Fold this sequence. Notes:
By secondary structure, the protein is an alpha+beta fold. It contains 3 helices and 5 strands, in the order ββββααβα.
Amino acid sequence: MPSRSRASDGCVLRRPVNASRLLRLYMLGASAEPDGATDIRIEELPSNDAIAELIQCAHVLDVTDKNMLKVKFERLSALVQTVPCFRLTFPHDYSRPGEVCAAVIA
Length: 106
């Protein structure tokens, strides 16, 4: 049976019994570096930068619904306070996926 909790907007949130805990969030950085660097980099993001990155990814169909926007912002804020967020910058070179995976796992 999934566990249940109630969100601040009254919605019932269900978490499946077999759900995995979210340990980290990675925001993808630009692949082309101005200095020509080809390094794989992982840098921790401050909460305000992480929220800004997540807002850019959020799909908002009704920007006039102020309550929904407030709730979405509150949820994103809670997320970045509980889950470490990082920017992952890497060259989009299809011969190097193992290096990217190793950097994330390390």
